[in-house]
Design brief:
Number of strands: 9
Number of helices: 0
Shape: globular
CATH superfamily: Immunoglobulins
Structural class: mainly beta
Helix content: under 10%
Radius of gyration: 13 Å
Distance between the termini: 18 Å
């Protein structure tokens, strides 16, 4: 898994690219604070090599909890900036700091 951040000089936005290797998966989405934990509109595109990838514009100077939804199962990104306990979910979520 990988997270790539590209800060824009023209506006207070960071282009964040999420990459998830999941050859056997049918559907992968990234869900978090930035999209109300709703997988609609945050589905990653499956590439020929079996990796799922997607880029999203997120506001700078924010911190977001997120997870990947891989075929209905939630997983964290091993390369997240940090992890934070979430009482509602009863588990740790990955954290993205922009």
């Amino acid at each position: 898994m990988a997270i790539k951040k590209q800060y824009l000089k023209s506006k207070p936005v960071c282009k964040v690219t999420f990459t998830v290797p999941a050859e056997e998966a049918k559907k992968v989405a990234v869900v978090g604070d930035f999209n109300g934990w709703n997988p609609k509109g945050s589905t990653l595109k499956k590439l020929k090599n079996g990796t799922f990838k997607g880029t999203f514009d997120l506001p700078q100077e924010n911190t977001f909890e997120f997870r990947y939804l891989v075929d209905g199962a939630y997983i964290n990104d091993a390369e997240a900036d940090r992890y934070q306990w979430n009482d509602y979910a009863g588990t740790e979520n990955a954290v993205l700091e922009l």
